[in-house]
Write a structure and sequence with these properties.
124 residues, mainly beta, globular
């Protein structure tokens, strides 16, 4: 049974930082894509960042480039999202996803496994 468990969310003031973690278990894969997505109330889900556990290549949404950094610890099968200079518009539920499905853009969110999410709230 594959499970993804997010942690690290919370409430911060604008300009602050948070580090999200996504711990994975139950995998038999050694190299795969993992991503962070977010969804604010009344808005569509948005792809935030992507990492390939095999080589570490990454991709980011334009809205977070230069502020967020995705990384991984393959030994722990854990992916992190370091979020700096947070803005009120970053407020959302953040979800971790793994095992990309199909050949479309990762930002579409076609992933096989999802966590339950962790809330990030940024106040002005």
């Amino acid at each position: 049974q594959v499970q993804l468990v997010e942690s690290g969310g919370g409430s911060v003031q604008a300009g602050g930082s948070l580090r999200l973690s996504c711990a994975a278990s139950g995998y038999t894969y050694s190299r795969f894509f993992m991503g962070w997505f977010r969804q604010a109330p009344g808005q569509e889900r948005e792809g935030v960042a992507l990492i390939y556990t095999g080589g570490g290549s990454t991709d980011y949404a334009d809205s977070v480039k230069g502020r967020f950094t995705i990384s991984r610890d393959n030994a722990k099968i854990t992916v992190y999202l370091q979020m700096n200079n947070l803005k009120p518009e970053d407020t959302a539920m953040y979800y971790c996803a793994a095992i990309k499905i199909g050949g479309g853009s990762w930002s579409r969110g076609d992933f096989r496994y999802w966590g339950l999410g962790t809330q990030v709230t940024v106040s002005s």
